[in-house]
Amino acid sequence: MQAQLDGAVNAQGKESGAVHPLMWVPTAYFTMALGFMMLTNVTSTMFKNLGMSNGEAAGYSSMFILAYTIKPFYAPFVEMYRTKKFFVLSAQVLIALGFVGVGLAMSLPNYMVVLLPLLWVLSFVGATQDIASDGVYVTSLDSRSQSLFCGIQSLSWNVGPIVAAGGMVWLSGYLYTEVFHQTPGTFGPEWIAAWRIIFFLVAAVTLLMAVWHWRVMPDGERASNTPSSVAATAAIIKDSFITFFQKRDVWRMIAFAFLFRLSIGFLEKIGPFFMLDPASKGGLGLSNEMLGLVYGTYGLAAVLLGSLLGGWFVARRGLKMSLFTLCCAVNIPNVTFLVMSWYLPDNLILISAGVIIEKFFFGFGSVGYMIYLMQELAPGKYTTTHYAFGTGLMGLCGMLTGMVSGYLQESMGYIHYFIFVMVATIPSFLACWFAPFHHTDAAQDNTSSSVATPMTH
């Protein structure tokens, strides 16, 4: 494999003096994922630790997904100015400074007044980093190298969630109890000191990555069809919308793109809250250390393994034959949370098993979603943009469900809420059953690498 990777870039490397992609691809996608997870996932745990209700914690952290949902609309503007590397470095420096600002703001009396707008702005900076980093990858590597490095790209991205939702959450709990000697299982402003260190640490890592990328990342070339003016960009966006809604059975495809992960959207924020809340509130009473280990490390490793096996499964059977099975894999294992909320196990092995089962099958089944977008929704005049529309619908679903999930859980309690999550699987099954197929399964031999798109939850 290494010989293939070296050979794929050898010619262009000799001609241009370019740094080997292994020097910047893994770190670029790790840095993207680290910022994304800190902003859209880890913040919900932080808000919960600081004493927010489940409704507030889930709602506030979900609103940071907006920037990543609508990034297709401002991606063309990033193409128009300077180099892609310039935007990557600028975004990473701003994210680092922003996380330092988050840590400093937490020492203010009414810190939430500053914290929430700052994190919201940082989410747009993070989305811009994603756009520019993807642009460097696509324009600096030829198609063969892109395929060869796709697996490394995906693996590197998935390290980010493990570090953020696993390592950083674990470290916050360790600092809280062992360094600042606070009482485990309590929520409130006494968590500020621990989380300030976490954000300073992530800022340092991000700044270090910016320095590294300044040295090794290529500039990225301008695409041949890059618009040269704001008016031209607006015209392209308008035309991409028009052609998108002219697709055959587009509303059924939109329903699929929005509803496939509906139940997961309701589970995504509440799962960690269920782990943290004490038994008196219907939760499992885990510490941040255990949450980071079980949910952020074991669970995300299970997602990655499931995704790899799911790609192999689709490659063997084809998407049309596999899609409903994959939908079952995403939705049915959610019942593990209902079972845990009913019995409230205190055995860490049983809790870990429940999380691993749900996460593994989520990763296994979600592969079908990404392949469907690639093979059925995206093809046409604006393939990349229409694919981004599909993933944007996924993000919109996650944002909307996340914003209401905490309030629903507080009004229902955990047992009834997880019953509701199971009921929410029905629209997913219907959207999957009626999803149209107008294209044959293409390039199945490349499926396992092409579907390695990050899918976290």
From TrEMBL:
<keyword id="KW-0472">Membrane</keyword>
<feature type="transmembrane region" description="Helical">
    <location>
        <begin position="57"/>
        <end position="74"/>
    </location>
</feature>
<keyword id="KW-0813">Transport</keyword>
<feature type="transmembrane region" description="Helical">
    <location>
        <begin position="414"/>
        <end position="435"/>
    </location>
</feature>
<feature type="transmembrane region" description="Helical">
    <location>
        <begin position="148"/>
        <end position="171"/>
    </location>
</feature>
<dbReference type="InterPro" id="IPR011701">
    <property type="entry name" value="MFS"/>
</dbReference>
<feature type="transmembrane region" description="Helical">
    <location>
        <begin position="349"/>
        <end position="374"/>
    </location>
</feature>
<dbReference type="Pfam" id="PF07690">
    <property type="entry name" value="MFS_1"/>
</dbReference>
<dbReference type="InterPro" id="IPR020846">
    <property type="entry name" value="MFS_dom"/>
</dbReference>
<feature type="transmembrane region" description="Helical">
    <location>
        <begin position="254"/>
        <end position="275"/>
    </location>
</feature>
<feature type="transmembrane region" description="Helical">
    <location>
        <begin position="86"/>
        <end position="105"/>
    </location>
</feature>
<keyword id="KW-1133">Transmembrane helix</keyword>
<dbReference type="InterPro" id="IPR036259">
    <property type="entry name" value="MFS_trans_sf"/>
</dbReference>
<feature type="transmembrane region" description="Helical">
    <location>
        <begin position="21"/>
        <end position="42"/>
    </location>
</feature>
<keyword id="KW-0812">Transmembrane</keyword>
<feature type="transmembrane region" description="Helical">
    <location>
        <begin position="111"/>
        <end position="127"/>
    </location>
</feature>
<protein>
    <submittedName>
        <fullName>MFS transporter</fullName>
    </submittedName>
</protein>
<feature type="domain" description="Major facilitator superfamily (MFS) profile">
    <location>
        <begin position="21"/>
        <end position="440"/>
    </location>
</feature>
<feature type="transmembrane region" description="Helical">
    <location>
        <begin position="191"/>
        <end position="212"/>
    </location>
</feature>
<feature type="transmembrane region" description="Helical">
    <location>
        <begin position="295"/>
        <end position="315"/>
    </location>
</feature>
<feature type="transmembrane region" description="Helical">
    <location>
        <begin position="322"/>
        <end position="343"/>
    </location>
</feature>
<dbReference type="InterPro" id="IPR004752">
    <property type="entry name" value="AmpG_permease/AT-1"/>
</dbReference>
<feature type="transmembrane region" description="Helical">
    <location>
        <begin position="386"/>
        <end position="408"/>
    </location>
</feature>
